[in-house]
Design goal:
about 40% strand; globular; ten-stranded mixed beta sheet; binds zinc ion; mainly beta; about 150 residues; Metal Binding Protein, Guanine Nucleotide Exchange Factor, Chain A; single chain
Length: about 150
Amino acid sequence: MSALKAAACLCGTVKMSMTLKPGLGACHCSSCRRWCGGPLMSVHAEGAVEVTAGADAIKTYASSDWAERAFCGECGSGLYYRLLPSEHFPQGEYIVSAGLFDDQTGFNFDHEVFVDGNPGWYSFSGEENRNRMTEADVFAMFAPKEEG
Ligand SMILES: [Zn+2]
Ligand SMILES: [Zn+2]
């Protein structure tokens, strides 16, 4: 899955191109569920996302001190969740809504995060095939290394 993949919002104003890292995840956190209506299904871009059309239409919302959420100002489609550049991610990290891609081949639903944020009225089949992380697991992974 190293070829460039094209993504577009619902109205087609915003178009993006990027290379994707392997894997596709679901985030069950309350912020994603409020943003999407359900878990955010997303893929990670390798490096930066190139906006090929509609850059002026992109609006961003700072959802925390370390991340922003981008959406199309014309149709409201969620575009990406972006971890801002930091010590751990000097380039930041773009986590792009899986639904924006016309070509869904090669998508491999292999992880879920904030599984303890699931309100309990939905589930995905095949969970034994995925890495499933709780909120504590996620924060432990990103916690600053205090020593060394
Ligand atoms: Zn749009
Ligand atoms: Zn989330």
